[in-house]
Amino acid sequence: MKPTHKKRKRTKDILFVVAVILSVLFFYIGLRFFLATDTPLIALSTGSMSPTLEAGDLLIVKGVKPEEIKVGDIIVFNPPEEGVGRTIHRVNGTQRLANGTLTFKTKGDANSDVDPYTVYPENIHGQVIYRVPYIGYIFLDPLILIIIITIIVILIIIWPEQKGRFRHKHKTHTLKAG
Questions:
Q1: Is-above-0.85 flag for pTM?
Q2: CB atoms within 10 A of CB 25
Q3: Full pLDDT tens readout for the chain, 178 residues
Q4: What single string gives the DSSP state of each residue in 55-111?
Q5: Using alpha carbons only, what angle is made at residue 130 by residues 128 and 135, rounded to the nearest 5 degrees?
Q6: Which of 107, 117, 128, 143 has the alpha carbon at shortest distance from 63?
């Protein structure tokens, strides 16, 4: 039994959507590899780094060795506090411990006080190297991401069918004068 035109088209559409999803996944995995970090992209959710970075910014992060981090660099790290996710703050000071470990003091640009904890190298994901304004909002609110993905999938699946329908309506008719 031969597959119908609609079944073949639907299969092609599904394969196209799967290919797009896999491309995005491989792109993210590639970023992790080339930027040497487990967190190559992160959306800023607070205003603690304002005015340098704003809530809703998408940040590109590169993995760095602790010795490469200088005062003034903006780093992404896990603070020692329980229940707190990744934090993005500026390095305010460094200290080398007796055992040779380099530690960091951090502070948000919009905060008046230095963070009350010390950041250890094993908690650092990397250094912020680039900022894309506003795009981070897509990742901060899952509903926005779901809506965008749904619209894209609908456009991919329906657009070619609609295009074919409109061609037939544009025929011109001539009337003969009698």
A1: no
A2: 10
A3: 566 877 888 888 788 888 888 998 999 999 999 999 999 999 999 999 999 999 999 999 999 999 999 999 999 999 988 777 899 999 999 999 999 999 999 999 999 999 999 999 999 999 999 999 999 988 888 888 788 888 887 887 776 555 555 555 555 555 555 5
A4: TT-EEEEE---GGG--TT-EEEE--SSTT---EEEEEEEEEE-TTS-EEEEEE-TT-
A5: 110
A6: 128
